[in-house]
Each structure stands twice: as C-alpha cells, then as structure tokens.
Write a structure and sequence with these properties.
The protein is α/β, with parallel strands linked by helices. It has 2 domains: 162 residues, Glucose-6-phosphate isomerase like protein, domain 1 (Rossmann fold), CATH 3.40.50; 55 residues, Helix Hairpins. 53% of the residues lie in helices and 12% in strands. The strands form 2 sheets. The chain has a 5-stranded parallel beta sheet with strand order 5-4-6-7-8, sandwiched between helices. Helix 3 packs parallel to helix 7. The longest helix has 59 residues.
C-alpha cells in the first residue's frame, strides 16, 4: 500500500510547478501538462517516487545510520526542524556551512568547541572570566548553536542527505555527490534532477506540500528505527538464551549422574 495517494498530494498543492519559462527540460518526464503558463506535475509519478524514497530511507534507518535533512528556505525550516527532531535525525535549516560534508573534520572541531564552552560553564571557569571575555564566549557559543546545534550528534558522515529544493541547496547536493552520499530531494520543475539519486517531483515552495512528503518519509524512517530496536531486543534475548543453555545442560548432566550413582550406593 502506498504511503501517500493522489488526492492527498493534490490537496496539499504538490502538483503546482513553476512558470513554463523557468522550467528545466530535464524535468519533462515528471510534467503532466501546462495550464495558464504554469507546469503541472504528474502526481501519479510523485506517489511512486515517494514510496521508492521512503523504502530506501527506512532501510538506511534500520541499519543504524544517520540521514541529514537540509532546508534553508523560510517556509520549510519549521517543518524540517519538527520532523527531523521527532525521529532524532540531524538537520540544517540555517545557512549551509561550506564544507559541511567535504570538510567534515573541521565542522566536528567547531562542534567540540561548543562542547568545551559548555564544560567551562559547568566547572565554574566561565564565572572567572571578565565581562568582556564572557560576552565574547557567549556570543560565540550562540552562533555555533544556531549553525551547528542541530548536527551536534552527527559524529560521522551521514549515510544520506534529504534536500528540500535542490536548486537552492545545490552546494549541499554537490558535496554529497562528490563523496558518493545518496541524495533524496523534493525537485520542482525549475530544478535539475540529474544529481539527485531519489527524485521526488513536487512543489518545493508550499509548506503543505513539503509537510505531506516529509510525513510519509519520516514515518518510514520511524518504522526502520522500530524494526532495528525490535531486532536488537530479539538478538539480546537469543544471546541470553544461548548463555543459559550450557548451564542448564550441565545441571541436567549432574542430575543424571546423581541418579546413576544412587542405585550403586544401595
């Protein structure tokens, strides 16, 4: 069963593309028609593409790897922050830090700097600083939190990048392409889908459109995480059972030996 349907996507306005003069010819396979100078996206294809992307995302989450969500456009920021936080995945909604992926070690150093400032606060060192120094450190901490706070738990490169508006986030897409990291993207009629591994043709400007697609994809990720958790519990139970088995076997052998010795004593 599909995770979305035609009517649901239609109601969310996922079918509205850009003006014909702004289109990217590479998006032609996903365009149904032109109406009043605006391209209309084929939602039947969008339903299929959402299912393909959701299944792939589910498998990534099930393997225990992270998916980085990226959306710096105003209308998509709150949706991404809410959905990614709910499934405990990292996200970028402020300016994309250049080298976020290709220079990951430097980004990690900046995150560690934020952790060090927190440590200074915790051990009382921060209180001994002058007002000017304390203000500078506080400002630095606030800036780091704003830009990198949502990726603080990303200790290694993500297994995939999910992008809203691949045209606006082309630097993130290029970095992911360069490192061979799969890109999942909501691609509108003005964008180039050739650099996206999992294309979701849809309106990337409307809040409702982005939300309905993210709901489906994040639900799949949540399923993957639950399945991983269930498998871990089963594995632990099996290991515990296996550990108990030799002890039970030894106990049975002891009892059998005692029963064999009893008639001999009589």
């Amino acid at each position: 069963m599909s995770r979305t349907n035609f009517d649901q996507l239609l109601e969310a306005g996922c079918h509205f593309g850009h003006l014909k003069r702004k289109w990217n010819p590479a998006m032609a396979p996903y365009i149904f028609m032109e109406k009043n100078g605006i391209h209309i996206i084929d939602l039947h294809k969008t339903v299929v593409k959402i299912d393909e992307a959701a299944e792939a995302l589910k498998n990534i989450a099930k393997s225990g790897r992270k998916i980085l969500f990226v959306a710096t456009k105003k209308q998509a920021k709150p949706v991404i922050a809410e959905k990614a936080t709910a499934i405990n995945m990292p996200y970028v909604i402020e300016r994309w830090p250049g080298g976020m992926l290709t220079n990951f070690a430097t980004i990690r150093k900046a995150v560690k700097k934020m952790a060090n400032i927190d440590k200074l606060t915790a051990d009382g060192t921060f209180a001994n600083l002058s007002k000017r120094e304390a203000l500078q450190v506080s400002r630095q901490r606030a800036k780091l939190e704003k830009n990198l706070g949502s990726v603080a738990d990303l200790t290694r490169l993500p297994a995939a990048v999910f992008v809203v508006d691949v045209l606006k986030e082309q630097i993130a897409v290029r970095e992911a392409n360069r490192l061979g990291i799969p890109v999942f993207g909501i691609v509108d009629t003005n964008s180039d889908p050739s650099n996206v591994d999992f294309v979701i043709p849809a309106n990337d400007d409307a809040n409702k459109s982005v939300e309905v697609i993210l709901d489906a994809c994040c639900a799949a990720i949540a399923e993957g995480l639950e399945e991983r958790k269930a498998e871990r519990i089963d594995a632990e139970a099996a290991a515990e059972k296996q550990e108990k088995a030799p002890k039970q076997s030894a106990r049975v052998e002891e009892e059998e030996a005692e029963e064999a010795e009893a008639p001999a004593k009589e």
